[in-house]
Amino acid sequence: RGLSSLAAMPEKSAFKGVTNGLIAIIGDDDTVTGMLLAGCGNVDEKRNSNFLVVTSKTTSAQIESAFNNYVNDPRVSILLINQYIAHEMRPVLDKWAERGEKRPAILEVPSKEHPYDKELDPIYQRTKLLLGLRDD
To answer: Which of these, 53, 51, 44, 46, lies nearest to 20 by C-alpha position?
Structure first.
């Protein structure tokens, strides 16, 4: 059957109002720099950017504010967030997920300083549950 039977495409109505398909990034310096070098950076005419560099001085309120700005921006289709940052703000992510929004897709990615932990990855956990897999 091919790949089309494995993953159904979302309805076109899920993408109404999406004009640019920006990728927003919340991450450490290395992650954001890498994504900017790949061409994912955007600063609009009001000097709003689609990225937040999280340092030890960044407050939870600043991270949550950036998250809310990105998920409510109709131009943002994908939000990349470092896994360790997502873990720190899990209640905010869970609350957003409960709304049942189809966009943006939120992807948790590892960072150089904080390696990937599959036990903290909600996509891995859901896939494991759906496939009936158990860790031995």
So the answer is: 44
Q: What is the dihedral of CA 112, 115, 121, 123, to 10 degrees?
A: 60
| pLDDT 10s digits, 24-68 | 999 999 999 999 999 998 888 888 899 999 999 999 999 999 999
The DSSP bridge partners found for residue 76 are 22
36 burial (CB, 10 Å; 0-12 / 13-18 / 19+) is middle
Task: Tell me the CA distances in angstroms from 97 to 30, 100, 106, 124, one per residue in order.
Answer: 27, 6, 9, 16
Q: What are 68-119's pLDDT values in tens digits? A: 999 999 999 999 999 999 999 999 998 988 888 888 999 999 998 988 888 8
Peptide bond into 91 cis (omega under 30): no
Q: Are 91 and 63 in contact (CB under 8 A)?
A: no
Global pTM reads 0.77
Contact 96, 8 (CB under 8 A): no
CA distance 64 to 48: 16
